[in-house]
Amino acid sequence: MIITSLDNATVKSVAKLRNKKYRDEQGKYLIEGLRSVKDSFPYLSEPLLVFSESGFAQHGDCFENCEKIVCTDTVFNKIADTENSQGIICVAKKQSIAPNFTCDRALFLDRVRDPGNMGTIIRTALAVGFNDIYCRDCVDVYNPKVVRSAMSAVSRVNTYEVDEQFLSSLKENGYTVLCADMQGESIFEYNTESEKLCLVLGNEANGVDDSVLSQSDTVISLPMQEAESLNVGVCASVMMYQLRYAKR
User: What is the CA radius of gyration of the chain?
Assistant: First the structure.
């Protein structure tokens, strides 16, 4: 059966998942585009695939053992968040797990608000093994723009919404808290002997809040010659690679 109406209950529910309040209520989010869906698929439970007619003709056979619905191209284009989603959207369940503090490298993000920055950070975190990401008052990690920017990484890392007091729990569980701030010591001079590290990164315009900065064990920075600052996504990427792969 091919869905031909925007009034279809499933279609309306999928479209509403672009809204954070509805995502929170339903515990679900959207993944768009063939590559993102395929790469995420092994890590999802009970995914629902929504195809356009043309998308199903091209890619329907790529996915087995899952629920699928097909819409006319016109209906699909009305619910898609992008112009070139290749005729496939996946409705996925959001994570629902508690921190276990076993990851040796973690991130604490303080009010990171730009979806592109958040997606870059999550994607790099997966690549470098910073698999636990704690978010204080940040853009929703399930925002469609974040999910697109992060590719499949949102489904493969652990993300948690926390407040600044959570840093004490990280310390109690053996983490050294490193805070990125322009006044800190060069990260390239920092001795990474600690077994468990949590890197704190702050808001694009205002940096790390004082309530968070005051709880750090060490303040670190990236040395710069002419520029006054770097994009938080770039800063996060350089620092994560240094903290993961620097010679000890």
Answer: 20
Task: Give the C-alpha separation, 212 to 201, whole Å.
Answer: 10
Query: Domain coordinates of the chain in residue numbers?
Result: 2-93, 105-245
Distance CA 93, CA 147 (A): 13
Smallest CA-to-CA distance from 149 within 21, 242, 33, 240 is with 33
Pairwise CA distance, residues 52 & 83, whole Å: 13
Q: Percentage of the chain surpassing pLDDT 90?
A: 87
Amino acid at 38: K
For the chain, the straight-line distance linking the first and the last C-alpha, in angstroms and rounded, comes to 60
**Domain 105-245 class in CATH:** alpha beta
Number of neighbouring beta carbons within 10 Å of residue 2:
12
pLDDT tens sequence across 151-165 = 999 999 999 999 999
Could you give the CA distance from residue 211 to residue 104 in angstroms, rounded to a whole number? 24
Return the CATH class of domain 2-93: alpha beta
pTM: 0.94
